[in-house]
Amino acid sequence: MNIESIMGELITLLIMALALGMDAFSVGLGMGLIKLKIKQIFYIGIIIGVFHIVMPLMGMMIGKLLSDTFGTIATLLGGGLLILLGMQMIFASFNKDDEPLITPVGFGLFVFALSVSLDSFSVGLSLGIYGTKTILTVIIFGLVSMVLTWFGLLVGKHVQNWIGSYSEALGGSILLAFGIKLIFPF
User: Fold this and answer.
1) For burial by CB atoms within 10 Å, which of 25, 76, 165, 177 has the most?
2) Per its UniProt record, what InterPro entries does this chain match (predicted)?
3) What is the pLDDT of residue 174?
4) Residue 130 and residue 96: Cα distance in Å, rounded?
5) How confident is the model at residue 171 (pLDDT cuts 50, 70, 90)?
């Protein structure tokens, strides 16, 4: 393999990682609009990065065995989870007496990470069929997603101060819209 083909493959993987990581950025932006501490933001980014390693790795392994149908199901599940998270945040913003049903802590963080990494599973299925370099691919996907999650959460945290009490409803709207976009690509 020559240097040009290696660089071409790296650039392709970086572009794919950025595309997949934009989910994490967008959802991080929405989730950053709720009150989070810097320590929570750090852990959320790490967990999202780990999920963006594990999910495409599983997809690549299964992709050698299955068809594209399973990837479509994963995308629909991810969209459904984001819609539920977004609706919950919107409703919670109007009812300030209740704690949000799902927050990016504990089980909520698991649901959050799963929802933004299901598309990585789908991509992993395709990459598994084509025989991409597994370790390099998942490390790039994980690192890029982690950094983009941190960036989205920090931007959301900063914007939260500007828009005050409407920030949680706006964050929920972002998650809801992104979930709808996953299910109904337009």
Assistant:
1) 25
2) Mntp/YtaF, Put_MntP
3) 74
4) 50
5) low
Dig out the tokens for 175 from the structure.
Answer: 């998650």
Residues in the chain: 186
**DSSP assignment, residue 138?**
H
Give how many domains the chain has, as a whole number.
1
Distance between CA atoms of residues 55 and 133, nearest Å: 15
Of 51, 11, 10, give the one whose Cα is nearest residue 149: 51
**CA geometry: angle 53, 8, 141, nearest 5 deg:** 10
Domain with 45, as residue range(s), is: 3-183
**What is 45-111 written as a DSSP string?**
HHHHHHHHHHHHHHHHHHHTTS-THHHHHHHHHHHHHHHHHHHHHHHHHH-TTSPPS--SSTHHHHH
- Flag whether pLDDT at 144 surpasses 80: yes
Distances in whole angstroms, Cα of residue 121 to Cα of each of 1, 23, 67: 28, 13, 13
